[in-house]
Amino acid sequence: MSGKVSKAQRKINNKYINDLKKKLAASNKNKEERHVLKPQTDDESEDELKKEETSTDPTEEEEANLKKSFKDFGLKDDILESIESLNYDKPTPIQAQSLGPALEGRDIIGIAQTGSGKTAAFAIPILQALWEAQTPYFACVLAPTRELAYQIRETFDALGSNMGLRCCTIVGGMDMMEQARELMRKPHVVVATPGRLMDHLENTKGFSLRALKFLVMDEADRLLELEFGPVLDKILQIIPRKRTTYLFSATLTSKIDKLQRASLNNPVKVAVNNKYSTVETLIQTLMVVPDGFKNTYLVHILNEHVGKSIIIFTRTCAHAQNISLLGRILGFSAIPLHGQLTQAQRLGALNKFKSGDKNILVATDVAARGLDIPSVDLVINYDIPTDSKAYIHRVGRTARAGRSGKSISLVTQYDLELILRIEKVINMKLPKETPPKNEILALHDSVDRASAEAIRQVKQFHSNRKTRR
């Protein structure tokens, strides 16, 4: 791919993308929706971006009436003490808008980006209600991924530390019998992935959610993308109709709208910065990479950011494994996180990165949503995501809570169409940065050798596993 795209070529590319969208829109129009929670496709979500442009951020008058302190909400002293110990100075915008109606018993649909403080926004009113009547299986929180479920559990444990909270995590990939024993201890809050929760509802004797008071669906857009719709339907049929329900999502689409109509009762909608965009403190750039030089460019970037906290996103598990190994061969402190690792390995990788034991996390999009990693200096898109939403969520790992951050996308000649789509969605042209040619050439041979060694080691590992079987 050359450094510049001609006006004629850009026009052709834009025409191709627009024609493709028209065909997809026509195709989607002719399809009947057979299920209220049918998973949403990337193309449907991109067609609906315009719907998300209507902001419901508070007006100046409404903002003046928002609570400025957690004490203003009349929370129990035990909860306020936990909030203070966690150094929550004041409510975040999503907390300031949602806590009032939530504490009054209203259903909530919250639209907020990752890192906005939405976990505490639904945990605090649940704990406030639980303080009055500590009954088993009081609340259930559904999350799309195991990692997010564990992090939600951590937030509940921290906020409920002064009130004897019992909380358990029920996710796939872990021992069913051990989870059944946890459920028999009658926890107040169950944090679960939908599939494994349904397994226990159907198979674990003595476990029931018939007395459930609160249901939370976190990252609801992701729940639908991962095809949990039919399972959610089953869960909604089992649990009591008379309950309080909170639905939180990073985006608002027609599928989310149908889900909230199927599960919420006259909800209060709160939205914070729900335009489909990236934060102002994020510097976004791209590097145009010649064929065969992607790993060299990557290593050059890592050399320029030694000691920084970095997430490298790849499209496949194999790429994540290879790039992590390449980094270690070249002396970088890298660790992989992807779906082919065991649950224990994934949690171990995440904890090592969060603690600073490893400063480079090489991840597939399993790590792009909901993970509570407060300080990331740089995000590198080794592979450009095929879905523009995934780009937003990837780069959202940095420049959080007002801090500055940077993302760099490695772009080959095959990524032109994807980059044009992303630029259209975020409404900006990504500036190009070009590393010194002599530095790239000086690195290339050693990186090539290390890449070959990484591939050899991965092949040897898989060969040894087959032999042991």
Please tag this protein with its features:
single chain, 469 residues, alpha/beta, Rossmann fold, six-stranded parallel sheet, 13 strands, globular, disordered N terminus, ATP binding, DDX47/Rrp3_DEADc, ATP-binding, RNA_helicase_DEAD_Q_motif, hydrolase
- The name of the CATH superfamily of the largest domain reads P-loop containing nucleotide triphosphate hydrolases
What CATH architecture label of the largest domain applies?
A: 3-Layer(aba) Sandwich
Total number of helices: 18
When the domains are counted, the total is: 3
The gyration radius over C-alpha positions equals 23 Å
Query: What's the CATH class of the largest domain, please?
Result: Alpha Beta
* Average pLDDT level: 83
Q: Strand order within the widest sheet? A: 3-4-2-5-6-1-7
Give the oligomeric state: single chain
Distance between the termini: 45 Å
Strand proportion, as a percent range, falls in 5-15%
The structure class reads: alpha/beta
Main sheet overview: 7 strands, parallel
What general outline do the C-alpha atoms trace?
globular
Which percent range fits the helix content?
40-55%
Count of distinct strands: 13
CATH-defined topology of the largest domain = Rossmann fold
| Contiguous runs where pLDDT drops below 50 for at least 5 residues | 1-13, 20-57
Protein name: ATP-dependent rRNA helicase RRP3
Pfam families: DEAD (PF00270), Helicase_C (PF00271)
Family: Belongs to the DEAD box helicase family. DDX47/RRP3 subfamily.
Keywords: ATP-binding, Helicase, Hydrolase, Nucleotide-binding, Nucleus, Ribosome biogenesis, RNA-binding, rRNA processing
